[in-house]
């Protein structure tokens, strides 16, 4: 089967039933909301992705209390459940022999800690809720350390998330406040004794920090925000006063009562209000009652979810499960620019940060520059953090010599915002446009939420990999990333040489004009612009060929389980892909093979025959459309030529018809009825 619909829709459909598509808005008459158009600012929107994860920890003491069941996590409750405290999570497959063997050991480890009572005394009832008051708190109550399972066959979207990092079964990963902090070594012995040492290491750390009194994870509470813990029904007047007028953060759902998708979202939205009590204002607007407001805000489908703050807005386009909504809401609350030093940045890199934006400033940086930066974090929610620093060590590392300066660091490699003038760095549209072009990691994982951004508008080298073969998986990713970095270096050098060549040509013309004392030619030479010819944009990514097995097999004809790791080069805009080298062999994860094949594919006249993900007619249509968009002037010339040719042909045809069709009446002028006249 070949696909003809958008890659993102296919991936989303295969990945999870949580994706809910909006319904179109019917035509309606405007209601009267005075001067609304002048007040409401409709600003830039962007796409967001789901949010991060959390963690856990234990203590010591025996008890005869019956151990509770180990918590089973799902897609719907994973992030919200592990969002506070320490969580030791086992990622497993029900059919995996190693998982079956490890199951009783994992249960014994859980029971050992779950039945402990801290500081002695009478144990609480086995049926009491975790966290309930007790004269002798349990281990879980004291240290906020929990055990849980995640079935990676049923909930693969969680396990393959890079924030979780399950690479093979079983994996035991420790989370703290939603972030993975350490994995139990894959090659370590899985015994209760050895795994207890791993757990006890964190119990000692918690005890040392809190003096046996665990601090609750830091969540910023503000009683003025969402005091009742519910979604507030807003009218147009209330929106102008509470949202636009105050500049406070508001997460708002725009809906219509008859919309089925809105009805399906309602329970999650109500629960979101409760979850974000004293943290973030949650609201909803009935567009049947306030049609003018929804029209001014350019709400085009139901439900539409938008986050507003300080006169800016960002449209939420992620999944609509409760966990996804809560993750975004919490990120929005904590979206301010963080001040960091050199050591902070190093720690973030060690923790696995792939992309970060850095704003360098000094004592001469103006208030206007800081105000311009304050508008940006909203756009970056779900992508990369924006950090600010005046660290000389960081400036030295990234060769910053002028301030203020904005850069992005991807896998340790800096790229610089092209504008260095004060006006450029305060240009919101220009800065956010640049950020969108560089906020993906150098080698991102293809998923339902980012497929459109990764695949559209460029040639993509896509690695089809399998986490089941750990060594092959790690080696293939390493080769893919090496190929991506090498390609970036080659293209950068190529563009540098081309730019220098154009500058040399310009200088040569200037010198020639000066030698001839030709002022007109001199002005023309000095006004020459050094513009590089636009090249095909190339990206690199990888996809889990086991998790996306059906899509990969039906689209590219590849079964990673049988064929091993493969590389394909895809052009989504033309629905074409390449899966063989110049020699006709399969493209394997080798940087030299990838780069040689890529060079042959992106040449002006590709030297390798492509395959199609659609039928012939659709392929021809996409190819023509791409050529038209790439060469608009030539296309308009050809179109004009065709129109002129058709006009000339049509005019000639009309003349012949006006002359009597196929009969030449002039030839009978001299003839009578019976023949010629003498």
TrEMBL record:
The keyword Nucleotide-binding does not apply. Residues 117-137 are annotated as: Disordered. Residues 128-137 have a biased composition (Low complexity). InterPro entries: PDI_TMX3, Thioredoxin-like_sf, Thioredoxin_domain. The chain crosses the membrane at residues 633-650. Residues 485-516 form a coiled coil. One of its GO terms (cellular component) is membrane. Keywords: Coiled coil, Membrane, Signal, Transmembrane, Transmembrane helix. Residues 1-22 form the signal peptide. It is a single-pass membrane protein. SUPFAM superfamilies: Thioredoxin-like. It is found in: Membrane. Residues 45-204, 220-338 form the Thioredoxin domain. This is Thioredoxin-like protein.
């Amino acid at each position: 089967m070949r696909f003809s619909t958008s890659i993102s829709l296919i991936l989303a459909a295969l990945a999870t039933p949580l994706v809910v598509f909006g319904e179109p808005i019917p035509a309606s008459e405007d209601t009267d909301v005075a001067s609304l158009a002048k007040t409401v600012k409709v600003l830039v929107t962007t796409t967001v992705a789901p949010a991060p994860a959390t963690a856990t920890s234990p203590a010591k003491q025996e008890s005869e209390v019956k151990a509770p069941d180990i918590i089973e996590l799902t897609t719907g409750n994973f992030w919200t459940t592990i969002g506070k405290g320490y969580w030791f999570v086992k990622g497993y497959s029900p059919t995996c022999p190693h998982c079956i063997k490890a199951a009783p050991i994992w249960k014994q480890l859980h029971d050992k800690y779950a039945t402990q009572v801290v500081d002695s005394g009478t144990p609480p009832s086995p049926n009491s809720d975790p966290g309930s008051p007790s004269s002798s708190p349990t281990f879980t109550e004291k240290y906020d350390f929990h055990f849980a399972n995640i079935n990676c066959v049923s909930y693969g979207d969680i396990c393959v998330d890079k924030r979780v990092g399950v690479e093979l079964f079983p994996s035991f990963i420790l989370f703290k406040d939603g972030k993975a902090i350490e994995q139990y070594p894959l090659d370590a012995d899985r015994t209760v004794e050895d795994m207890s040492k791993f757990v006890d290491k964190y119990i000692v750390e918690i005890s040392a920090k809190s003096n046996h009194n665990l601090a609750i994870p830091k969540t910023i509470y503000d009683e003025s925000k969402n005091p009742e813990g519910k979604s507030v029904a807003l009218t147009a007047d209330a929106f102008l006063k509470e949202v636009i007028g105050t500049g406070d953060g508001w997460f708002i759902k725009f809906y219509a009562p008859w919309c089925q998708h809105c009805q399906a979202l309602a329970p999650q939205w109500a629960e979101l209000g409760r979850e974000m009590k004293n943290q973030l204002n949650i609201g909803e607007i009935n567009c049947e009652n306030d049609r003018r407001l929804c029209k001014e805000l350019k709400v085009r489908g139901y439900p539409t979810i938008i986050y507003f703050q300080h006169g800016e807005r960002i449209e939420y386009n992620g999944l609509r499960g409760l966990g996804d909504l809560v993750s975004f809401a919490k990120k929005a609350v904590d979206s301010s620019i963080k001040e960091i030093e050199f050591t902070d940045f190093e720690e973030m890199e060690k923790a696995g940060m792939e992309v970060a934006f850095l704003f360098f400033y000094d004592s001469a940086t103006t208030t206007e520059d800081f105000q311009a930066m304050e508008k940006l974090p909203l756009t970056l929610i779900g992508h990369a953090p924006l950090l600010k620093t005046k660290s000389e060590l960081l400036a030295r590392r990234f060769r910053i010599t002028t301030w203020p300066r904005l850069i992005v660091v991807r896998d340790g490699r800096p790229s610089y915002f092209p504008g260095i003038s004060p006006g450029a760095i305060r240009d919101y549209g220009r800065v956010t446009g640049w950020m969108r072009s560089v906020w993906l990691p150098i080698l991102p994982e293809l998923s339902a939420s980012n497929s459109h951004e990764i695949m559209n508008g460029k040639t993509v080298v896509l690695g089809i990999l399998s986490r089941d073969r750990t060594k092959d998986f790690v080696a293939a990713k390493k080769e893919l990333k090496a190929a991506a970095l090498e390609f970036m270096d080659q293209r950068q050098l190529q563009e540098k040489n081309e730019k220098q060549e154009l500058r040399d040509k310009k200088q040569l013309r200037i010198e020639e004009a000066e030698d001839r004392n030709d002022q007109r030619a001199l002005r023309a030479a000095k006004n020459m612009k050094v513009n590089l010819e636009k090249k095909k944009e190339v990206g690199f990514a990888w996809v889990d060929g086991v998790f996306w097995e059906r899509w990969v097999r039906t689209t590219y004809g590849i079964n990673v389980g049988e064929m091993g790791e493969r590389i394909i080069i895809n052009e989504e805009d033309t629905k074409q892909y390449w899966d063989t080298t110049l020699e006709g062999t399969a493209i394997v994860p080798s940087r030299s093979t990838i780069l040689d094949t890529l060079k042959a594919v992106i040449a002006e006249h590709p030297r390798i025959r492509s395959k199609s993900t659609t039928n012939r007619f659709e392929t021809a249509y996409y190819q023509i459309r791409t050529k038209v968009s790439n060469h608009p002037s030539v296309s308009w010339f050809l179109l004009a030529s065709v129109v002129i040719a058709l006009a000339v042909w049509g005019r000639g045809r009309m003349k012949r018809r006006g002359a009597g069709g196929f009969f030449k009446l002039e030839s009978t002028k001299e003839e009578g009825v019976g023949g010629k006249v003498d």
